Amino acid sequence: MALKLTVIGTGYLGATHAAAMAELGFEVLGLDVVPEKVAMLSAGKVPMYEPGLEELLARHVAGIEGSSGRLRFTTSWEEVAEFGDVHFVCVNTPQKHGEYACDMSYVDSAFDLLAPHLTRPTLVVGKSTVPVGSAARLAARLAGLAPAGEQAELAWNPEFLREGFAVQDTLHPDRLVVGVASERAEKLLREVYATPVAEGTPFVVADYPTAELVKAAANAFLATKISFINAMAEVSEAAGGDVAKLAEAIGHDERIGHKFLRAGIGFGGGCLPKDIRAFMARAGELGADQALTFLREVDSINMRRRGHMVELAREACGPAGFLGRRIGVLGAAFKPDSDDVRDSPALNVAGQIHLQGGQVTVYDPKAMDNARKLFPTLGYAPTALDAVRGAEVVLHLTEWREFRELDPAELGEVTARRHVIDGRNALDAELWRKAGWTYRAMGRPNA
Ligand code: UDX
After folding, report:
1. Which CATH architecture has domain 216-298?
2. Whole-number Å distance between alpha carbons of 224 and 258
3. What is the pLDDT of residue 446?
4. How much distance in Å is there from the Cα of 335 to the middle of ligand 1?
């Protein structure tokens, strides 16, 4: 009999995981505690922008014409417990208010609500990003609360999907990592992931703490790589060098590689910033805080980028600074192909300039609604052209393809001055300069 799967929590991670598991051929039941989300997903609609996800859902959600019918959603814990052989916990773990540590309340509550209904042998698989040590604690809690006792077993299977590529990353992951306490758990997870494993995806079996640490370490490494190149941008700027050239040159060394070496206004989003902070906090609790003090520097280099961008924009506005000046902002999402504005460097810069008296108008291809909710006092325009109308300076803060394809000559017709600052080192400098623009980027010489 084919395994039946459930997915608890239907955010970026859970909604994608549920649809992807249905695509792999499993019967899947997704649970969320928010009835509106369940209603939306049941109608084949996704509550956020993620390329390809809505199509994937529509292919499988029961009741949609032509779908496989393998995917349903519910708010009932009883139904989930009754249905599933394997339960994936995909709820979010935000940063605690006023602290670096991770807020485990959603994970804890998912276990507390599910466990009492688990009456037969089952595997609960945690996918949320959690502080190391959580899996061991939750395994004991699960066995204690479930009527099935020790037969309600836990595994930890961290998720590495990137927003904007969530579907692709889930269907064709570059590696699968499972933290297990028994052969039975490993066997079940090999069954779940048989398709990607057959395609050649490495399947790494580890203990609980190692599996949890893999996720924290991977994100810490990526954040460090970005802050490294941003530190080089600071030095390049001081020395009159060009960080983009530098990144290209060091990237040819295979041990370094080209990826994640784009200097600019730094990393943001719902993962990297909070994950490195939670990692530091946890290391502190374990008495290993010294091992991760470098992450404080990584964080601080990253946050400095936002301030530096604000200073470059201020300089561009002349001696009177931002007061009474129009600033056109291209981009609000924390990265392209996403509508996510959580800890977005773009929106942070726009907000700072606004708070310092600048008249900021923002345009983003997908993140307008989320940006408006978070920062209702900023100006918003329906197109890039409208956002830069009358602007003293244009800031390019999220590297959407749409912005690279803009015609600088056309934009220059409506701005007050032709001055652009590229916060993502992604525009074609020559093209803009040819059209009469002063083009500035971070960590690169002014031509
Ligand atoms: C990240 C990890 O990549 C993923 O494996 C993990 O599961 C979740 O966190 P995500 O938050 O979707 O994924 O974004 P990512 O593509 O890693 O980008 C993070 C931030 O870094 C973005 O703000 C991006 O603009 C910035 N970035 C990325 C740079 O500033 N320079 C780069 O070279 C690359």
Report:
1. Orthogonal Bundle (1.10)
2. 14
3. 85
4. 7
